[in-house]
Design the sequence.
């Protein structure tokens, strides 16, 4: 299984509510750079946080890849969700190549939990960072970090 973890692109600093913050022009550019690193890779599904910036990120990636499926919106990918809960939800998924679009601190802690077995050893994820993990299934400590891409840093 391949699991791709993507943090949303740069978002506006303020909105009425945190969940309503939209991507900036720079954030959209970052996302498209990361989407370029997914080109040529098989993706079976895209799941995203319900927050506007994650939805916009997922849709940009979907369009850039020509992915014909819809973006799945799930309530368990928001910033303060528990990465252990994410693993429970992923346990029943059938996709073998899945992209998750979320936020810090969740996305980094989830990566750390999957790779190191501890959410306290998170993966550093700047805006629009893309981590590629591989393993038999999404189990704490049993996935390998194959690559990580940080827009503007490679």
Sequence:
């Amino acid at each position: 299984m391949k699991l791709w973890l993507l943090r949303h692109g740069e978002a506006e600093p303020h909105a009425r509510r945190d969940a309503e913050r939209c991507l900036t022009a720079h954030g959209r550019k970052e996302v498209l750079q990361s989407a370029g690193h997914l080109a040529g890779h098989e993706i079976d599904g895209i799941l995203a946080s319900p927050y506007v910036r994650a939805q916009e990120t997922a849709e940009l990636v979907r369009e850039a890849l020509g992915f014909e499926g819809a973006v799945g919106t799930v309530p368990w990918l928001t910033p303060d969700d528990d990465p252990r809960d994410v693993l429970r939800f992923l346990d029943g998924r059938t996709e073998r190549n899945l992209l998750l679009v979320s936020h810090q601190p969740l996305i980094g802690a989830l990566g750390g939990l999957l790779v190191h077995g501890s959410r306290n050893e998170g993966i550093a994820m700047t805006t629009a960072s893309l981590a590629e993990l591989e393993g038999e299934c999404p189990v704490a400590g049993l996935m390998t970090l194959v690559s990580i891409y940080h827009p503007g840093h490679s």
Q: What stands out?
A: The mean pLDDT is 96. The helical segments are 25-38, 52-65, 83-90, 106-116. Residues 39 and 151 are 15 Å apart (CA to CA).
